[in-house]
Amino acid sequence: MERAKTYRKPGVTERLWLGLEKVLNLLTTSAYNPFYYLGAISIFFLWIIFITGIYLFVFYSISAAGAYNSVQYLTVNQWYLGGVIRSLHRYASGGLVIAALTHGLRHYVLDRYKHWRWVSWVTGIGMVLVIIVGGIFGYALVWDQRAQFIAISLSKMIESVPVFGMPMSISFARIENLADQVFYLLLAVHFFAIIAVTVLVMIHLGRVAKSVINPPKVMAYGLVAVLFLLSFLRPAVSSGPANLKALPQAMPFDWLYMFMFPLMRYMTEHELWLFIVALVLIVSIIPWLTAEKKNPEVQVTKENCTGCELCREDCPYGAIQMIKRTDGMPYELEAVVVNKRCASCGICMGACDYKALNLPDLTEDALKAEIERLSTELAGAQGKKVVVFNCAKGAWPDGVLEAGGRVKGFDWARIVTLQCIGMLQPSMLSIPFENGIDGVFISGCRMGDCSFRSGNEWLVGRINGYRTPVVKKSLDRSRIGTAWLSAVEKDAMLKELGQFHKNLK
Ligand code: HEM
Ligand code: SF4
Ligand code: SF4
User: Fold this and answer.
1) Nearest Cα residue to 71 out of 126, 20, 138, 10
2) What is the pTM of this model?
């Protein structure tokens, strides 16, 4: 069986995850599947936290004596506005942790976290840490029983690190020492968290070209509606005021932000620190611990490059830079590849009309020769014939794909495998037709979930004539079929292929 180097049979967890998304796609369609927008949803929650936070800050009294009452005023006296805003702030913060963790886990399960993606991975972990610290300090600001519990637990942990010494414990231990400065400190850390997350988001997306940072409008309205609903059904409230003369009493517990404190019952402070540091370190270096050999990066044939910039425009990871021409050719610019950013997806090959880009393990000439060979071989067969361009990351005809691109039960088809469907350069699409083939079927990842972020979208743009280089107008579009499906949807892909063949004139 012929397989592209990038084809990797999805593992059990990956199949389960994609299976869940497949079910959700039936309800939402790919265009509105929340799993495809988890990063954008996280950013949306950050906006809500930021905006509602400004309102809360205006009313907040930065003092030991006034903090609790100022929050109570919003919650009780101004329940219709301040109370709702407090609840939105709280629930958006919960939503943020859930969305960010699910987004990170999804990247792990779907194997989208190594090599060129390491910066996003590591900064993602940094963001989760900062968000949790910021949230804990936010809870402390309310200065209720829960805040007291947090303050005591946190100061125990901080004191156990030699650098921090004694002052914090003195402040929290005796009410007469609880200085207003402590509240300035809590607020400063809470604010700093937002600034740090903003900077980290920028680094997170630094290598992700044209990143999707907003969820679709309908989804955004839906999220706001859910937050409002929660705010009315279960408004965020404080527990009793902090009383440092007594131990904190029963209080509502937020597992998303406070999960580490119960561990203090089973571990010393030092053991807890060790546990947290080890966990963060291990999760951060997972991309290197599990990395397999990377496919070779794309190479530029300088003498063919006209400096048209289409490759830079289409590269999903900003791996192509345009520099001033160095070889005296009559063009202003030339393309260069930043190897460490290159995903070896071949999308830039699909954008280049001048044979200036080649993946060493699948050059444009070799790919065109393969398409031609399979097409001419198939052209002699009886009946309608179809050449299939199949993405190695999408629905893969596992188990039925045979040597020479043949598919069991589909004698009229031959499959050409690409690293990413975005690699399909328009002139490649013409080859089967020029060689007597009746139809071309294109199969790639679900729209909105291309493994290389935008390959399928760019190709659709080329076929529909709004993205350069465009597919020739003279090609009969009714002879081009498409299926956008995930790696667990092989049967659906084969069914659609069969249907396309049946309907082909
Ligand atoms: C506040 C938290 C986070 C926000 C706001 C956020 C936001 C985003 C956004 C908007 C994207 C671009 C999506 C696209 O256009 O395809 C992205 C990509 C990415 N994120 Fe996050 N993220 C967060 C947390 C995390 C975490 C916790 C991890 C993992 C530890 C993570 C790992 C990644 C990776 C690996 C990518 C690259 C995707 C690719 O190359 O296809 N992110 N993130
Ligand atoms: S698309 Fe091709 S010709 Fe255009 S800049 Fe890139 S490498 Fe050069
Ligand atoms: S192979 Fe993919 S990641 Fe590498 S330069 Fe080309 S488009 Fe960018």
Assistant:
1) 138
2) 0.95
